[in-house]
Specification:
Tetrahydropterin Synthase, Chain A; alpha+beta
């Protein structure tokens, strides 16, 4: 089994309320998303990287890049955003292993559907 990861970047805005954090004003982040698939190497690859790119662009990037996340995701914490991304991809990438979402260079979450 081998893990293959494709990296994406997008810009989005959000505001968080009721969490005891000072992020109740609308503000933006440059998010970094890593989408990983895991499987056996067949015909020299685990999965065509172009398929990962196509699915993520269609299911995630078109909905999140340069958008207000509050319009799409209730309480868009990085945890909730990662779960939303997973749910968009799980039926389209059958070997989906995990999504890793960086909100800042120092803060990120990893979600594997569990």
């Amino acid at each position: 089994m081998m893990l293959v990861t494709r990296k994406f970047e997008f810009d989005s805005a959000h505001k968080l309320e009721g969490l005891g954090v000072n992020e109740s004003n609308l503000h933006g982040h440059r998010y970094v998303l890593e989408v990983s698939v895991n499987g056996p190497v067949k015909n020299d690859v685990v999965m065509d990287i172009a398929k990962i790119k196509e699915v993520v662009n269609q299911e995630v990037m078109e909905n999140l890049d340069h958008h207000n996340l509050n319009d799409l995701i209730e309480n868009p914490t990085m945890e909730n955003i990662a779960m939303w991304i997973w749910n968009q991809l799980k039926d389209k990438l059958d070997m989906l292993s995990e999504v890793k979402l960086y909100e800042t260079p120092n803060n990120y979450v990893t979600y594997n559907g569990e």
